[in-house]
Design a protein that fits this description.
The chain is mainly alpha-helical and about 200 residues long. Helix content is about 60%, strand content about 0%. α3 packs antiparallel against α7. The longest helix has 15 residues.
């Protein structure tokens, strides 16, 4: 059988050869399916909507939000949307404030979405965390899932921490220092390793 092109083959080869647990995960789950996104503003809006909500509830609210903006919301449209309309779509007052702040910072140039693909990870994070409601974890998820940056280790992510604890037979959830030590052999592909760690929890 001819294999389809796999953009993460180099990462999978490296992880398999450097870590037995990773090798087992790759053999179990197959090629990584991360693909870059170009709809940066939409993805950031989705991140805000999804905060502290169950997956189904977040999907329902974001679905209504996306439909209202013809599935391609712009900063200008969100900034101009009446608060009452956003409330009707299911957003809390707090999240509406976050949305307005994101839109304002995009419009005034404090967040340069058009330049993100060329910016280093830290600069993307530094820009995003200026938005109310967006912290380092949300910025790291954006780096991994929208920009597909290959070497992000989300040390505050509950799922990654739990998967490491289970996979490496630790007695407790690891902290940042322990995670970085375990993840050292994964470099420069820690994002891909994190993706496999999330996958490992699917049947837990």
């Amino acid at each position: 059988m001819i294999e389809l092109d796999n953009p993460w083959q180099e990462a999978e080869t490296h992880l398999s050869s450097s870590d037995e647990f990773m090798s087992n995960l790759i053999a179990r789950y197959g090629p990584c399916t991360l693909q870059p996104r170009s709809d940066y503003f939409t993805q950031l809006c989705k991140s805000i909507v999804s905060q502290q909500l169950a997956t189904k509830a977040a999907a329902a609210i974001f679905g209504r939000f996306a439909v209202h903006f013809d599935h391609v919301p712009t900063a200008g449209e969100v900034a101009a949307a009446p608060r009452e309309k956003l409330r009707e779509l299911g957003l809390s007052h707090q999240k509406i404030t976050y949305m307005y702040d994101l839109a304002a910072k995009v419009l005034d140039g404090n967040i340069t979405l058009a330049h993100f693909a060329a910016l280093p990870d830290e600069e993307v994070i530094n820009q995003l965390v200026t938005v109310k409601g967006i912290g380092v974890w949300t910025a790291q998820m954006f780096l991994i899932f929208a920009l597909n940056r290959p070497d992000v280790l989300p040390t505050d992510d509950f799922g990654v921490r739990k998967a490491i604890m289970l996979g490496y037979c630790l007695e407790a959830m690891p902290g940042k220092t322990q995670m970085e030590m375990i993840a050292a052999p994964w470099q420069p592909w820690r994002s891909i390793a994190s993706w496999y760690l999330w996958r490992s929890l699917e049947n837990s």
